[in-house]
Amino acid sequence: MTREPRRPGRHFLQIPGPTPVPERILAAMSRQILDHRGLEFQQLGRRVLSGIKGLFKTQGHVIIYPSSGTGAWEAALTNTLSPGDTVLMCETGQFAVLWEAMATRLGLKTQVIPTDWRIGADADLIEEALRADKAHKIKAVCVVHNETSTGCLTRLDEVRKAMDAAKHPALLMADAISSLAAAELRHDDWSIDVTVAGSQKGMMVPPGLSFTAISAKAIEASKSAQLRRSYFAWDDMLSMNSNGFFPYTPATGLLYGLAEAIDMINDEGLDRVIARHKRLAEATRRAVTAWGFDIQCRDPKYYSPAVTTVIMPEGYNADAYRKIVLDNFNMSLGTGLNKIAGKAFRIGHLGDTNELTILGALTGVEMGFELAGVPHKKGGVAAAMSYIAETADTTKAAAA
Ligand code: PLP
Q: Could you give all domains of the chain from N- to C-terminal order, each with its CATH number?
């Protein structure tokens, strides 16, 4: 067997999740297993169950499943709905497509508002669909907050207003899998009924945990919901979680990592974390625009703070280009998904990312264009550098 030569330095994982895990979190997870029915676990359980609420801005309960985000999607639907119920969904991109496919498989009817995959969900169209539903057949509106395939962020506050304006009683469900701890999210203020998220993106924890914030209205709906559920049943979780425990063996190692991640986010300050994501996203877009490329998100209103999807010039394959970047610079960029496969690539700028991380990544992107012979204008990295320098918090230096 031939061994691959060592690649010095670190791999640049610039996909929009999973994201690199900070040393502090890796160290926190490196612990011996403990009795998950004992007092020490109970303290850990209580700590994470209460800490995670702050990140969703909720006073209500947040369930933590040992599953990827897809499990929380399933739990959201099966705990609140009954066979044949209609759900209103917006096809903002590949993740909305997958959630819709799951709803259909589970025996729900879906009513889909299409988009061209270049904007977020349009609150006006949601309002129109709800007003037309005089019989209140629609039982839930399901929206992907940050569409990770396209880099479009839906304005959930506007979706809430639209639902209120239509005076429609449907539940509001949000997929915040790639927006938790990356974009503003207010589960209670926006009266979201179910918000699902994952550990492996803005939270900086390895893949394997999902989070589900639930409103009182959603808990009420779960009492009469008829879709089948067992492992993902909320009621078992809620009763065991009330004492800090779980109904089955919890993912203890990941929970240690989660506790550390919550501390890190709170130490930095959630608002600052979100502002950092916005700033690095803007720096990335400045680079992309300076190179002369189009951004998949065509309306600034929907710009994502977590990921930028870049459209390749006609005739140049995005995956061939990504391979050149990986082979030469040890950097993984996100692939284009579904109908933009080969046509676009994604730059993740979420999680444990700072100015130099993103500038390093953009440098690799720009050099990659050069090596791959992809026509582009020079100066993308320089544009990002100027923006970062202009917006630097100079009070930090003054205080030192
Ligand atoms: N929803 C969104 C917006 C996502 O970005 C992802 C994964 O990237 C998923 C759902 C699916 O989550 P998971 O892969 O954790 O099951």
A: 12-19+269-394 (3.90.1150.10), 23-266 (3.40.640.10)
